[in-house]
Write a structure and sequence with these properties.
Largest sheet: 4 strands, mixed
Helix content: 40-55%
Shape: globular
Strand content: 5-15%
Oligomer: single chain
Order of helices and strands: HHHEHEHEHHE
Strand order of the largest sheet: 1-2-3-4
Length: 179
């Protein structure tokens, strides 16, 4: 986690919220529901965990990958609907997304309105999830990421996953950008 976030001052404790997969079709449907603002079970659960952590500690660092970006955005939207405002509550909230399917501009508007301290989405132009799924890419990036779709989940020689455009681990061949 320290290598991914590039920070030395990471908390000693963290809570991992894992969204179990039920296959590509079910995951896609769940992502679409979240993207459209229809809260799913995992998003409501994440919102409850965030609210509990803020009440207990006053701060939280949220990190999502892929569908995790959508889950975080939907959880924050759910908290907003329930009258929570991070800035007005004196809470410190930072959000980082790697290859997230959320729309970066829409998420940034929500997070700014909610008083999020920092939002940093990382992406690369060959990754279909943020470029097409999140509608973040320009037309050339969208076309390129569609062409690269077969490489999602790909492993190169010797099990090297660096060919996978959805892999954000250090040492990958894809340039990682932040918006």
């Amino acid at each position: 986690m320290k290598r991914l976030l590039g920070k030395d001052n990471l908390p000693e404790k963290f809570i991992l919220v894992h969204n179990q997969t039920y296959g590509f079709g079910a995951d896609l449907l769940e992502s679409i529901k979240g993207w459209l603002g229809i809260p799913t079970e995992i998003e409501r659960f994440t919102a409850a965990v965030v609210a509990q952590q803020l009440a207990t500690h006053g701060s939280v660092q949220l990190v999502g990958h892929s569908q995790g970006g959508i889950i975080i955005e939907s959880a924050v939207r759910n908290l907003s609907r329930n009258g929570v405002h991070f800035g007005l509550g004196g809470y410190s909230v930072n959000i980082t997304s790697y290859g997230g399917g959320e729309n970066f501009a829409r998420a940034r508007r929500l997070y700014t309105a909610m008083g999020v301290n920092d939002y940093t989405p990382y992406y690369n132009s060959g990754d279909l999830v943020p470029m097409v799924g999140g509608l973040n890419g320009n037309p050339l990036e969208m076309i390129f990421s569609i062409i690269m779709f077969p490489y999602i989940g790909a492993e190169g020689g010797g099990g090297n996953r660096s060919a996978n455009p959805h892999n954000y681990a250090p040492g990958g061949i894809w340039p990682i950008h932040k918006k």
